[in-house]
Structure formats: C-alpha cells, structure tokens
Task: inverse folding
C-alpha cells in the first residue's frame, strides 16, 4: 500500500495563516487594567500620565487633580468593583473611552511576629494574627 502525502492547497494554508494572525492580533488588543486597594487605606495613583474623568464614584474619592483615588472605608464596599473613565489629561476625557477597574479589598492581615515559626525542613512558615 502506497500512501500519498498531499500538500495543503494555497487557499487553505492562507486561511489558516489569516486566522492565526487574527487570533494573536485580537488577543494583544484586549487589555484591562485592575487596581486593588484595601478599604480605608491611603490614596493610590491611577498610573503615569492619567487623570480621572469622573468625580467621586461608588465611595472612591478622587483628588482635586484627578491623579489619585482613595478607596472607601465602609466594610460593605469589599469586593465591589468600579469602572473609572481615565484619560491622558482633562481635555482628552471627552475623546477616549479608556477605563481602569478599581476594586476595594479587605484590610491587610496583622501578623503577630512573636508567633512566626520558620520550618525549612518541612518547607513551611507558620504564623498567627488577626483578620
């Protein structure tokens, strides 16, 4: 029995090539930015060269210049996300639709340093604390 190998036809190979390029180009274009901050903490920067286009939103306080966002301090805000419209400067707010997602997380845990036990032979660290 003789098996013949067939080369793929040019239209089929071109279709596969266009499909792969489209998938990789589309994957690089989709991008979302997420900023997570514990409730009640100090304000964080929205990123280099960006200002907020909206005032206080969902408990988040935006500073006067729009470059910093302070998370809410209420426990009910934990896990809630807010989409904030941002731009390169205040005049560019009407043109673009860039968004940053702000998420309020729970406070950082407080570890009692006197309870930390390092066990390298077992590959673990044990600690106790609050939260």
Result:
């Amino acid at each position: 029995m003789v098996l013949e190998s067939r080369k793929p036809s040019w239209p089929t190979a071109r279709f596969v090539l266009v499909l792969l390029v489209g998938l990789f180009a589309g994957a690089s274009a989709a991008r979302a930015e997420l900023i997570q901050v514990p409730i009640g903490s100090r304000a964080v920067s929205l990123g280099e060269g960006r200002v907020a286009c909206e005032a206080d939103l969902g408990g988040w306080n935006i500073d006067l210049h729009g470059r910093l966002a302070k998370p809410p301090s209420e426990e009910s805000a934990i896990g809630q996300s807010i989409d904030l419209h941002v731009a390169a400067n205040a005049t560019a707010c009407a043109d673009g639709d860039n968004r940053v997602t702000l998420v309020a997380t729970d406070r950082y845990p407080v570890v009692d340093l006197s309870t930390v036990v390092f066990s390298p032979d077992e590959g673990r660290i044990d600690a106790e604390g609050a939260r």
Notes: Residues 52 and 86 are 5 Å apart (CA to CA). The first helix runs from residue 10 to 29. The longest strand covers residues 110-119.
